[in-house]
Amino acid sequence: MKKLGHSLLLNYPYQIKLNKAAVSLLLTHEKNNQKMKKIVLVVLFFSFFNANAQNLNTDSTVVQKIKKVKFGPLFKSEDTLNFTVFANLKPLLKDRGEDTKNHWGMVKYMNHKNVMMEIPMKVKVRGNFRRMTQNCTFPPLLLDFDKKKKGNSIFKKQNKLKLVTHCLKKDYIMEEYLVYKIFNLITENSFKARIANVTYEDSAGKQASQTRLAFLIEDDEDLAKRIHSKLIKEAKLRQNQTDTLQMATVAVFEYLIGNTDWSVPFKHNIKLYFKKGKMATPIPYDFDHSGIVNAHYAKPAEQLTEITSVRERLYRGFNYSPEVFQTVFERFKAVKPQIYALYKDNADLEPNYIKSTLKYLDEFYENIDSPKTVKRVFNQQGLKNMEAGNVQIKGYN
After folding, report:
1. For position 197, what pLDDT does the model report?
2. Rounded to two decimals, what is the model's pTM?
3. H-type helices in the chain, by residue range?
């Protein structure tokens, strides 16, 4: 009996806090009768069993107990948000080097009680292609809120938010925003976005205020919490080192929108997330170089000799089994009505753009419905993409 008691205690990995009196009683020789020892052993056994049940590592056969995370109200509505970015605009908009710095600013908006909310923040220029003066007269911004001074506002629980701005006189804000909404329909493993009318007000009073369409993108870390994962910042992975179904979904989605401006190994317009016991989850963003947006400045990388325009689709994913492709295609077909509804009779889009976009979507669905086209577009091109020495683009914007 004493030997058995020692064995339980020495080999028990979860270090249960046991009653010292019970342990002492168990390990006593003649002073305690056999009946009492049996009772204590039973208590120890059930304590051991219960602790093991509560501390099992999560795997594919065990349901993980996930801590519920509370999120703010910003991305819970589809309504157009109206707010003001208040900052010294001249030095902010001129700061476009490789290492841009933070500038003091404030976000102002009228809440549902008609009370003006003023939230301090730091703001700086961000991006690659659109950060450059020769490409955009107005660059994209990063809004960095003070964690303690957001109060009970629409920006509650927000920290850093990417603001996609109008860039030039001709903007493509609504066109790119809708691409995020397409991917939201396909999978929850996607960045949320919120359309907004943003007024840019110069704190120095030297520039006239202007109001333009823009949209906010969910923060990287907030997305990680929402999908119960961690953002991968350093590791360099290939497509075949990520979750198969999600990677195939991303690759087909990029083909749908006519986007070749992405790379998994270089994490170019792709974020990678890790969940315990799972392969990495790739999530795309930044779609202004896609064919469906059709920005006048967008063009394919010169390394991609197969196409000369972003309106020409080129599959850049790997080849997958018929079962995987079929699963992915069926998902796209299931949300087809909702995707088309984003564009049909959309008052914020020009009629000619709606017409050309619906035709562009028709071509995609015709392709995935044709076994012959699937073989050529996805299987054969996918095999080519998997070859050693295939085209890897770090990023041309």
Report:
1. 97
2. 0.81
3. 2-11, 20-26, 34-54, 89-94, 173-186, 220-226, 244-256, 322-334, 336-341, 351-368, 371-374, 381-386
